Amino acid sequence: MKITVIGTGYVGLVSGVCFAEFGFNVTCVDNNLAKVEALNRGEVPIYEPGLDKLMAKNTQAGRLSFTSDIAKSVKDADIVFIAVGTPSKADGSADLSYVFQAVDDLSATINRDAVLVVKSTVPVGTTKSVKKFLADKGVDIDVAFNPEFLKEGAAIDDFMHPDRVILGVETKKAKKILEQVYRPLYVFNIPIVFTGLETAELSKYASNAFLAMKVTFINEVANLCEACGADVNDVALVMGLDKRIGDKFLQAGPGYGGSCFPKDTSALADFADDFGVKMPLVSETINSNNLRREKMVAKILAACEHKVAGKNIAVLGVTFKANTDDMRDSPSIEIVNELINEGANINIYDPSFSTQAKRMFNNVAWKESVNDACEGADTVIILTDWPEFKALNLKELRSKTNGGLLIDLRNIYPVKEAEAAGFRYCSVGRAFN
Ligand code: UDX
After folding, report:
1. d(Cα 8, Cα 356) in Å, to the nearest integer?
2. CATH of 2-195, one of 3.30.300.30, 3.20.20.70, 3.40.630.30, 3.40.50.720
């Protein structure tokens, strides 16, 4: 079977590489020529553990290739996936221009027997609009919708061992070919759920919005913990032991960021409104998460007794979460920029050495290690829970710093352990003495 994947972002590239790993013949397409050239040289444009090896293996095996020629790539494809971005427009709605540009670009040459599968996250009704767009050009082919649930930083494992695969289809032909594509997952007994197009489209938004709401809920509980003397880590532990709630996405922190939760919650609220349906829980999740960043800045300033001008602050981790170099909607953007505005001297160490981050902050010093960043610091702030920050020798770290304030917005350490190492330890939803 020949698969074409259009778009080589997180979803497109990981899907293409993993389909090739399943044994299919895959062509990945992108209209960014420089990116395609880099991929053809074996360079992986994103930081994703394990992706480079899998890409090299499948390219060498002759199952995976990259091109910018979309028209040619779809001529003899049996199935074409569209995995281009659907970023937020200024009004919060999803920008579908890349999706329709790709559909337009492939319309003249796509194999009329192929099935066209939308994998990009798109508002309900989009896949049907894609079918109509093609029909209006005289192209009558089957369409389907197949959302992708992979997380950055664990993308390959999530793709290869997903909790479920959702396939929105209208025809037997689309169902049959998608069954073949995902057959390799049947051996792991992974639930494969066939639905209609609208249900599949909404399932993706509902899942992301629910997880965003769960994170936001525990962050609001953390606020209450700080006011009433409870410990949010323990509250989350107790809640998570209830199987109806589950322990995932209950880690309090600086608020969610990344390429999906912020854009998908906004798009869901927006298109629900178009259907005449208000979703106040979703709208309030968005508001609460936006406020969270200001709250984190206020928390840091208060812990520093509002004396940050001219002080040395070491920031550990700036990406929106660990194991990625992605800075999109990272809480660190507002937090670090506000500290710069307040006149602090900022040293940053981020294990991804993110070039996106380097473009984002001016007047900061980039450091090569935790020790480099923390040497002589008045305050150390942990913003991202990278694995290498989880077992720091806190006594040694304390001896490198000048002041003894450790602000940990990811609650990595037990309060007593940080205090025993000589730090004043300020975390989220827990006691601060
Ligand atoms: C998410 C979804 O998990 C994935 O299914 C979807 O396909 C894309 O969006 P991703 O954005 O890669 O994936 O990151 P995720 O691990 O879900 O984290 C999202 C945000 O929530 C991050 O900012 C993270 O730090 C935050 N988060 C997550 C918390 O603050 N606490 C938690 O307990 C979990």
Report:
1. 17
2. 3.40.50.720
Helices in 137-241 by DSSP H: which ranges? Answer: 155-160, 172-181, 183-186, 197-228, 232-241
Which pairing describes strands 142-145 and 165-169: parallel, antiparallel, or unpaired?
A: antiparallel
Cβ atoms 51, 64 nearer than 8 A:
no
Pick among 3.40.50.1000, 1.10.3720.10, 3.40.50.720, 2.60.120.260: CATH of 231-433: 3.40.50.720
β strands within 97-247, DSSP E: 115-118, 142-145, 165-169, 192-195
Which tens digit of pLDDT belongs to each residue from 332-388? 999 999 999 999 999 999 999 989 999 999 999 999 999 999 999 999 999 999 999
Beta bridge partners of 66: 28
Q: Which residues line ligand 1 (CB under 6 A)?
A: 148-152, 208, 211, 215, 249-251, 253, 256-258, 260-261, 320-321
